[in-house]
Design a protein that fits this description.
It is a single chain. With 238 residues, this protein is an alpha/beta fold. The protein has a single domain (5-220), classed as Rossmann fold, CATH 3.40.50. The chain is 36% helix and 16% strand. It has helices spanning 14-28, 51-63, 81-94, 109-125, 174-182, 194-210, and strands spanning 5-9, 33-39, 66-72, 98-101, 149-153, 166-169, 215-220. It binds zinc ion. Residues 10-11, 14, 108, 111 line the site of zinc ion. Zinc ion (ZN) is lined by residues 10-11, 14, 108, 111.
């Protein structure tokens, strides 16, 4: 099945926290989105095994996106060749226009691994001649696929960025983002969770910079290019 966007994340809940509002907007516009969780996020502190998978499915339903997991071990994710090839295989299978993945990370080692392997997978997906590469056989029977854009949402475990490529106004769908993130009741305590409050504070902070209630920010692997120079929303001070 073809998807418009593939989101590669280390853990269930990463995509919702980083770009849940954007996902809701894309889904509402009819874009087909596949979340790829590299690990299953187990063990979760406040729940039995399997609970987080059910929460992840519920969050995806709320946002209107599809979701799969590679079921790698949380805490032990590495930028391994086998994982690169599997993500490249998914990119070639689903032929997305856009890939979103964590771009810069140093706090959580799984995020560090996800950043490197996502970039590598995007590159490997566009190459041919895999039948001549020992160990690359799983890509040999697929056509190469070059995505249009690789975007990086901001990981909220990292300090806020002073500079970013663009931001999405997610104010209108923010309640839906809250519900999607709140589906992870084994991570966030439903009432008055401090982490959730801090995450929302970041979205409000970037909203404040841009003159809206809530915004999600992005960096881009390549400079942005537009056909229509009138697409930009006004800034507060021009
Ligand atoms: Zn994570």
């Amino acid at each position: 099945m073809a998807y418009d966007a593939l989101v590669v994340a280390a853990h269930p809940d990463d995509a919702e926290v980083q770009m849940g509002g954007t996902l809701a907007i894309l889904a509402d516009r009819g874009q087909r989105i596949l979340l790829v969780d590299l690990t299953d996020g187990e063990p979760a502190e406040l729940a039995e095994p399997g609970t987080r998978a059910r929460q992840a499915a519920e969050a995806a339903r709320i946002l209107g996106v599809d979701r799969i997991s590679l079921h790698l071990q949380d805490r032990f994710l590495t930028d391994a060749l086998a994982v690169r090839l599997e993500v490249a295989r998914l990119i070639r299978m689903h032929r997305p226009r856009w890939v979103y993945g964590i771009g810069e990370a140093c706090v959580h080692p799984d995020h560090v691994a996800a950043a490197g392997l996502t970039r590598a997978s995007v590159f490997l997906a566009r190459l041919g001649q895999w039948e001549r590469v020992p160990g690359g056989e799983r890509l040999a029977n697929q056509e190469p696929w070059a995505i249009e854009r690789l975007f990086f949402p901001h990981c909220k475990m990292e300090p806020p960025w002073a500079e970013f490529a663009f931001a999405i106004d997610v104010s209108a769908v923010y309640e839906r983002k809250r519900r999607a993130v709140g589906a992870y009741q084994s991570i966030f305590r439903p009432e008055g969770d401090r982490l959730l409050a801090l995450y929302e504070a970041e979205d409000q902070y970037f909203g404040r910079l841009l003159g809206v209630a809530h915004a999600e920010i992005y960096r881009s692997a390549a400079p942005l290019l537009v056909d229509d120079p009138t697409v930009f929303r006004p800034a507060i001070h021009g």
